[in-house]
Design brief:
Elements lengths: L2 H23 L14 H48 L4 H55 L5 E7 L3 H8 L2 H9 L1 E7 L3 H6 L5 E4 L3 H8 L4 E9 L4 E4 L15 E4 L5 H13 L3 E2 L2 E2 L2 E4 L5 H7 L4 E3 L6 H5 L3 E3 H4 L2 H4 L1 H4 L9 E8 H6 L1 H28 L9 H10 L15 H7 L2 H5 L18 E2 L5
Parallel strand pairs: 1-2, 1-3, 4-13, 6-9, 6-10
Antiparallel strand pairs: 3-12, 4-12, 5-10, 5-11, 7-8
Helix pairs in contact: 1-2, 1-3, 2-3, 4-15, 15-16
Length: 466
């Protein structure tokens, strides 16, 4: 092969290598992923990829330089050939010099080719390193995205509840937990006040009147953000007894109650405002005996007390049989509030179950608060649509066993007697009228556990929208 042909082949090869180097080194790097939220390994891999691309660009520049050098060598060779032809035999010295220049050009071209091949090899290696580093970064990011975030936990204490059981057994609770990445750890108790006072929960279902008492007696600061059940425990008598109101019962008589607070907090205010009676556990004008809701109907019928304040569902069989009757014209506390409050906003008031959290937990968990209310609004919708089915599914919550008791319960809770709210969400007007009962609590006997001091710190209520 002639020297010229060899040199042309070199230049052609260098040009091809230059194009290949451009394909490898001049492409923009793959889109850089945002590694701010992934592990340091991904960030390091991305940095390595960028360095590899810089090396590839440097290799390309070397290849381009080699190609330029080869082109110069070719030009020198052609000039040397022209010079040799012009000199001919007449000028042998000039021909020899041209031949030497040709040999030098060929050596330079071959050296340029070797340099170009080495530069191209470096560029290819750098490109491979860049792609590997980029793949590593993407894999790290995908792994971080696939790793599930730890579920948030809500510790919730409340009384046994049929709607909660329904949400659990229908899978609605599990669906909500999955969608919101929240788990609710429950503690079932009829004495939520004591449980919460011990610092064992994040959220508790608590009566309106219990909240300022809790704050006054403990160091707990609360936030109330939702509602669920109205205060529903009516005062009951044995059928045939002449008592229409508390004022008709002889002073000093035994009255069966479920707690020193809770519904007793409502009846102590009503007794003071309507009758001027001191009604409290541990003193006052009557002897209040504390027992479980579901025991008190039997205690009343047995004559252990002259009246009993009991949740209606604990007395269903006796109410249906006509053995026990509800005093105050058959009305429950939330239907009696306007008798002494002077308020009439067209809404029911005085709750036995508000959703109340510690202030520290509430302020740091806005997402969980909103999701919690959403869950209970689902529960309310389920109750309204499936009342009879829920009562039949959980008769233990209503002290019912046969179909007649189930039907009585369903009918009893229709219309104005339904103690479930229509919406768990608060509004400011409702809050203002609800907390008005606190002022009445400042007028109670100083030894009344439901009393509040004048100038008490007002509990915090917050409106949380759906």
């Amino acid at each position: 092969m002639s020297r010229r042909n060899r040199l042309v082949k070199v230049v052609t090869a260098i040009a091809a290598l230059s194009l290949l180097a451009a394909a490898c080194g001049d492409d923009e790097p793959a889109a850089v992923v945002d590694t701010s939220a992934i592990e340091a390994e991904a960030a390091a891999a991305q940095s390595e990829a960028e360095s590899a691309h810089a090396e590839a660009h440097a290799a390309q520049e070397a290849a381009d330089a080699a190609a330029a050098q080869a082109a110069e060598a070719l030009a020198a060779f052609e000039q040397a050939q022209a010079d040799a032809a012009a000199a001919g035999e007449a000028d042998a010295a000039a021909a020899a010099a041209a031949q030497a220049e040709l040999d030098a050009a060929l050596a330079a071209a071959e050296a340029a080719q070797a340099a170009a091949e080495a530069a191209q090899a470096d560029a290819m290696a750098a490109q491979a390193d860049a792609e590997a580093a980029q793949d590593e970064a993407m894999a790290a990011q995908e792994a971080a995205m696939m790793e599930p975030e730890a579920a948030s936990i809500i510790r919730f204490a409340f009384a046994p509840d049929p709607v909660w059981d329904w949400l659990t057994d229908t899978g609605l609770l599990a669906q909500w937990e999955e969608e919101n990445n929240i788990r609710i750890h429950t503690s079932s108790t009829w004495d939520e006040f004591t449980y919460f006072a011990g610092g064992h929960g994040d959220i508790v279902s608590m009566g309106t009147q219990e909240i300022p008492v809790l704050e006054n007696e403990t160091s707990i600061t609360t936030v109330t953000f939702g509602k669920y059940n109205f205060q529903r425990s009516p005062m009951m008598r044995r059928a045939g007894d002449p008592y229409e109101t508390l004022a008709d019962i002889p002073l000093g008589s035994n009255i069966c109650v479920s707690s020193p607070v809770s519904n007793t907090g409502f009846w102590t205010v009503l007794a003071d405002q309507l009758h001027g009676i001191d009604y409290r556990v541990g003193g006052g004008d009557y002897n209040l005996i504390v027992n479980d809701h579901f025991v008190n109907p039997t205690n009343l019928l047995r004559g252990d007390c002259e009246a009993a304040v009991v949740i209606p569902e604990a007395a269903v069989p006796h109410l249906r049989a006509g053995e026990i009757e509800i005093m105050y014209g058959g009305r429950m506390p939330f239907q009696l509030y306007n008798e002494f409050s002077g308020l009439n906003d067209g809404k029911n008031h005085v709750m036995s179950n508000l959703f109340t959290a510690t202030e520290e937990w509430y302020d740091s968990h806005p997402r969980e608060v909103a999701a919690f209310l959403e869950l209970w609004q689902i529960g309310i919708a389920e109750w309204e649509e499936n009342t009879a089915d829920i009562v039949r599914a959980y008769p233990q919550h209503f002290a019912v066993e046969d179909e007649a008791d189930v039907e009585f319960t369903v009918q009893f809770m229709q219309g104005a007697n339904d103690w479930f709210v229509e919406s768990v969400y608060l509004d400011q007007e409702w809050i203002d009228n609800e907390v008005a009962i606190y002022d009445f609590m400042t007028e109670l006997h100083p030894d009344n556990p439901n009393g509040l001091p004048v100038g008490y710190p007002a509990p915090r209520y917050e409106v949380v929208g759906p």
